[in-house]
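Changelog note: in this version the structure field was regenerated for every chain. One regenerated record is shown below for reference.
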Amino acid sequence: QVQLVESGGGLVQPGGSLRLSCVASGNIFSINAMGWYRQAPGKERELVASSPSGGTTKYADYVKGRFTISRDNAKNTVDLQMNNLKPEDTAVYYCYASGKLGTIPLRLFERWGQGTLVTVSS
């Protein structure tokens, strides 16, 4: 089956940078999309950035110009470069992936990572 593992979270000062990474592994035939979501205390999980295969990269308004999502299709990885971080960016960040399993017949999958905590504070 499929599993996602995130890394790169931690404590950073306002204005600093952090790079998150996610690796998808398992019986994957293809990945249709990968992306990043985040959830702050008391708030719902929200989309940060997504990278659909063959589609257009999408960013939430609050991260445009500061965050950059990138994918390596050959290795099934997705990174999130976070620049000019603000205290309101503090949240648990989750990796997401969807695609097809390497089964016969092919079956769809959706999977979430375990999350990595990003804290922006002085």
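Spot check on this record: The longest strand covers residues 28-39. The mean pLDDT is 96.
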